[in-house]
Amino acid sequence: MGHVLQFAERDPSLSDDLAKQQIDTLREALLSKQYERLQKADQTLLIVVAGMDGVGKGTAINTLNSWLDPRHVHTLAFGKLSEEEAMRPLMWRYWNSLPARGQTGLVFGSWYAPLMKELGRKEPDPAKIALYTHLINRFEAQLAYQGVQVLKLWFHLSAQAQLDRCATLMSDPNTAWRVSKADLKVHKQFNRLRNAATQTINLTHRNYAPWVVIPSADQNLRDVSLAKVVLQAMDKPIVPRQVKEPHAFPFRLNVPTASLLSPPPEEPVQDYDAELLHWQGRLSCAVRSKAFRKHSLVLVFEGRDAAGKGGTIRRLTEALDVRTYDIHPISAPNAVELARPYLWRFWRKLPRLGEISIFDRSWYGRVLVERVEKLISRAAWQRSYEEINEFEAQLLANGTAVIKFWLDIDKDEQLKRFKAREETPFKAYKITEDDWRNRDKWTAYQRAAEEMFAQTDTHMAPWHIVPSKDKKAARIQVLRIVVETLESLDEHMISLNEPALSDQFSEQV
Questions:
Q1: Sign, CA torsion 424/426/428/434
Q2: 127, 200, 206, 229: most buried by Cβ count inside 10 Å?
Q3: In degrees rounded to 5, what are phi and psi of residue 19?
């Protein structure tokens, strides 16, 4: 798309009369389309604002915002990482800020910053370029598939026009404040920045997340072009099924060693109280160590209803400082969560460095209950395996250990526990109609779980299948696995900058 930059550098213009005729019509159409999208509430529009410093992109977006109903437009400005953001994966702050369906987001300082910065260096690193490109394209494809339109705008003009604009603003005390030191440096670096922009556009332009260059030397043409592009995006939403996602990270799946059909044998505990104290003591030491301050921990608990997840979690947390962990019981998504992509609510619950997030049920509901109950299409849950693996890869790359447990009991033991719950007043709340209904679909859930293991039991985040007919033995086994993982954290971490990964990304882009 380099020729589009060349057109913008000719600094085309539009007369005041022609601009006024078009703007009045465009403003009315934009507002009407905005309200229509709000009523449908089926897709979010993210407008990524980019361009060299001093080209007027901020002024143009302010104009656009005044033409829309600003109550439903969210400005998402990302600058230097905050302490909270630096403690989590690279994409956390972008996931965390996604507006609801029907809303519009204006994104400044986006996920493109690392890529553009690298491409703008005198000697850019090809491995980093490939990695950033892959992360961006995967991120935007996942958003698009789940109802988020990404429209990327590059505001551009000639080097001389950029210099003249800064000079004009500097000459008036009322506008001089709008010119930054970065604006004044652009002229000297123009060719390098132009090359970085061209490469960025070519590497990341997709039909479902297109780049559009906005000629910015003339205010009239800039504003009209911007309004037309946004209106076109609002008028022609993406079609998720047409989104073709780039290849996922090169995950290595484990060779199956256990399954629901042949779980590993239970190991009886000789002295439960002593064993419990031993492993809780080691867990307490592990999470208080200096080494853990550079990491965080995500524990995932899945399994049969009444398999003992709650009791196991309680034995874990008895050894932890309440200020360092959160327990997230996951149930059906609420209205706020349904208005955003599926993984959004899990991204928001990720722990800071030195802290732990415990999920009682998790993102695996996508390929278990939502699959079995036919709440989503077959294509959606099949596609989720790669999304989940990539999500977990980004956690490990950030220093977050991911330990996944499946607590398993047979059908007879589950029936015994269901009846015991019904007969025990303080446990009766635990048994619901959904539990009995899920039991009737035992085989379907078993099939779904088996495929889940096959697709997501990776070398970086393996599944641990824990027989829990003997609750005490199961609790000790879970504690042991958590402790042994924490005591050898560096062996469990991965880096997205590993040469093997970077080489594969280079081939893809």
A1: negative
A2: 200
A3: -65, -45
Q: Which amino acid is at 83?
A: E
Contact 124, 205 (CB under 8 A): no
What is d(CA 48, CA 108) in angstroms, rounded to the nearest whole number?
6
Length of the chain: 509
Q: Which residues, 6 or more positions from 509, have their beta carbon under 8 angstroms from its beta carbon?
A: 129, 130, 133, 134, 137, 203
**Residue type for position 88:** R
466 contacts 406 by C-beta, under 8 angstroms? yes
Cβ distance 481 to 315 under 8 Å? no
The single-letter code of the amino acid at 266 is: E
In this prediction, residue 54 carries a pLDDT of 80
**In this predicted structure, what is the pLDDT of residue 436?**
83
CA–CA distance, 147 with 495 (Å, rounded to integer):
30
The DSSP bridge partners found for residue 154 are: 50, 213
Residue 191 host element (H or E): helix 181-204
SS3 for 215?
A: strand
| Pairing status of strand 325-329 against strand 356-360 | parallel
Instruction: Summarize the chain as % helix, strand, coil (round to 5).
Output: 55, 15, 30
Largest CA distance in the chain: 89
Name which of 393, 396, 373 is nearest 385 in CA terms: 393
Q: What is the pLDDT of residues 214-234, one digit of tens each?
A: 999 999 999 999 999 999 999
Tell me which H or E stretch contains 193.
Answer: helix 181-204
Torsion of CA 142, 144, 149, 151, to 10 degrees: 70
Where would I find the H helices in 146-180?
Answer: 159-170
Which residue bears the tokens 């309440």? Answer: 322
Cβ contacts of residue 133 below 8 Å, gap of 6+?
115, 203, 204, 505, 509
The letter for the amino acid at 257 is: T
